[in-house]
Design goal:
3-stranded antiparallel sheet, mainly alpha, about 210 residues, 10 helices, 3 strands
Amino acid sequence: MTVPLRPVSAVTALAGELRRRVLSGEIPPGTALPEQELSAAYGVARPTVREALAVLVHEGLLRRERNRSAQVVEVTEADLDDLMFVRRPLEDLVAASLAGRRVAEADGALARMAALPPDAPWSDVVAEHMALHQALVVAVGSPRLERLYAALAAETRLGLVRLRSSYPDRDVLVAEHRALLDAIVAVPEEAARRAVAEHLDHGWGAP
């Protein structure tokens, strides 16, 4: 059976390009994104720009106030500290639940991260990084844990943009996550929980 492929809409394409630029740090936090300028730069109508921006606002990457241009969300050091305050107990639950298990989807995300070319945009690294941790959360099998984790996704992704300066050698990031997944598989449970805690105990690099 032939399944026709649906072309990517202009809204989806523009949202994807803006997402890539935000998550690669090309568009810095706090930057305003006027509709008229984006319309001229990308050669699309303003309604298309408006819809694309709405997608990223919904994802938490942009913030929009009435009668003002959308802006890239700024995540402060205090925000990131509070983010980790909440993530640590959630990730501890993940480690305790998955100790002794291998999660194929997480291994797949790590393999894709390792296979990225040296010149791949940092947004591709962010995507696989998020996919790896999301796969671990999903493997626990708790819908409520998934919802809690999803609520932190936007700030986590924006925080990961800052890690770019801490990992000029991407192989180091890959090695750290390979060690993390191997530690979760190892027993006893306490070793997995300790490995996850240590993995989350890092600085966030330059803003």
